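Quiz preparation item.
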């Protein structure tokens, strides 16, 4: 009996592109514009979850009123502040090479991000991802984002692969939690700022520094084409 082919479902920010801290500063700017003071480290710990859940948690921590209008303003301010920093975003070391290797080897892969297409599209273009050929799932396309599994379940379905044979690659505990809920294996990358122990406790069975480190050790995790 032939074994099912493995596949990879990639997060975007902090996993393939060096953009986590642009998101942190953009949220900081958006919060300050609303008169909300919150430590940078608290913002960073929530990067990777959906924007809606992110704002709910932040406002709950500050014990301020949570209204739909305020959440919408925060999300719009964040998107504007993030776009103003887009020129500083770069692919992480080895990201393009890793994706090219998987493509050449015939290993299916997709991208599933908690970001909305308005912020993800320019980054995907900079990464060289052809939206006509690559499966990309954004927050706009699912009911719930990370740590819920919807993004990865949708990406696997669109790839035509079983989640039990798929591996999620992400940089945050939210990616790892979502991967466990989707019944996927999880690989953690340190390039988003989370520590190795945090990622392992959340479910990562391998942890690498960045895409370049993962590519160097691809024999540890890649299924046969």
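Solution:
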């Amino acid at each position: 009996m032939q074994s099912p082919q493995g596949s990879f479902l990639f997060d975007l920010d902090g996993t393939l592109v060096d953009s986590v801290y642009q998101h942190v500063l953009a949220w900081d700017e958006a919060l300050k514009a609303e008169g909300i003071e919150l430590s940078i480290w608290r913002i960073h710990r929530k990067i990777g979850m959906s924007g809606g859940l992110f704002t709910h948690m932040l406002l709950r921590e500050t014990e301020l009123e949570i209204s739909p209008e305020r959440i919408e303003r925060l999300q719009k301010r964040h998107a504007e502040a993030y776009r103003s920093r887009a020129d500083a975003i770069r692919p992480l070391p080895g990201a393009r090479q890793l994706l090219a290797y998987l493509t050449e080897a015939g290993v299916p892969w997709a991208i599933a991000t908690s970001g909305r297409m308005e912020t993800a599209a320019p980054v995907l273009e900079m990464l060289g991802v052809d939206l006509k050929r690559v499966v990309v799932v954004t927050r706009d396309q699912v009911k719930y984002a990370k740590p819920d599994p919807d993004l990865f379940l949708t990406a696997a379905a669109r790839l035509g692969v079983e989640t039990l044979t798929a591996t999620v690659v992400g940089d945050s505990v939210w990616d790892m939690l979502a991967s466990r809920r989707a019944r996927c294996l999880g690989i953690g990358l340190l390039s988003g700022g989370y520590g190795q122990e945090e990622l392992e406790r959340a479910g990562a069975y391998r942890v690498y520094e960045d895409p370049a480190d993962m590519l160097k050790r691809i024999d540890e995790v890649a299924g046969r084409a």
